[in-house]
């Protein structure tokens, strides 16, 4: 855009473009927020990982779409800034919530590195952990931790330490990226670490391809969880010491029962 130097100030400039980092939720367009849908409708260009874009074809009609494959996150972000700095309204699509294991952080890191004046909007989406929790019932009613088992960006030793700390503190634990074709043993090691602190009968919920046609929901135990099919489309939620299962639901009490007992006896 003539007269717009979009990479030379630390404040956004309305004459420059816009990058909206949009979370598409857990799978289908039905699970997207109206704010995310509106951002897509107002975009000049939509950029994203092909697998996520393929889940929302009805929202891409009539739009210029730039898709790419896995492991090209930096290129997607840099391309989005090039387009936005020419004055375009760009939507960069993430799965789930863009601020949870997704693109929002990288976008802002690149904005800071470029000292860009492009406005960045982060538009939330339904994250895998709470979308899958809803499929299981109410496993996250008390304190919980989300841990990714992917060591592509985080050393495995760090992940092990976090698993040990979360298990020892009796957090409900949600596992992202639990198993890939090459990374098959991390879920085994994670289960073994948690077994040091949890009873083997602790409920475990596994949701694969949430809200999609091939969705699978399994409720099992810490002892038997590895017998289930777990892959990169799965989110695994491991209960704490109070979590129980009933009638196909996974439930973590928040403490209402004890509170009301105390109130009635006072």
The proportion of residues in beta strands is 15-25%
CATH architecture of the largest domain: 2-Layer Sandwich
Shape descriptor reads elongated
The helical percent reads 25-40%
User: Class of the largest domain, according to the CATH hierarchy?
Assistant: Alpha Beta
State the total count of DSSP E strands: 13
State the low-pLDDT regions, or none.
none
Topology:
Elements: E1 18-23, H1 34-41, E2 45-49, H2 50-53, E3 64-68, H3 73-84, E4 89-94, H4 104-114, E5 119-123, H5 128-136, E6 137-138, E7 144-148, H6 156-168, E8 172-176, H7 186-195, E9 203-208, E10 216-221, E11 234-238, E12 244-246, E13 249-251, H8 256-265
Parallel strand pairs: 1-4, 1-5, 2-3, 2-4, 6-13, 7-8
Antiparallel strand pairs: 8-11, 9-10, 9-11, 12-13
Helix pairs in contact: 3-4, 6-7
Description:
The structure is a single chain. It contains 8 helices and 13 strands. β7, α6 and β8 form a beta-alpha-beta unit. α3 (73-84) packs across α4 (104-114) and α6 (156-168) runs parallel beside α7. It has helices at 34-41, 50-53, 73-84, 104-114, 128-136, 156-168, 186-195, 256-265; strands spanning 18-23, 45-49, 64-68, 89-94, 119-123, 137-138, 144-148, 172-176, 203-208, 216-221, 234-238, 244-246, 249-251. The radius of gyration is 21 Å and the shape is elongated. With 266 residues, it is of the alpha/beta class. 40% of the residues are buried. The chain is 29% helix and 23% strand. Strands 3-2-4-1-5 form a 5-stranded parallel beta sheet, sandwiched between helices. It has a 5-stranded mixed beta sheet with strand order 7-8-11-9-10, with helices on both faces. A 3-stranded mixed beta sheet has the order 6-13-12.
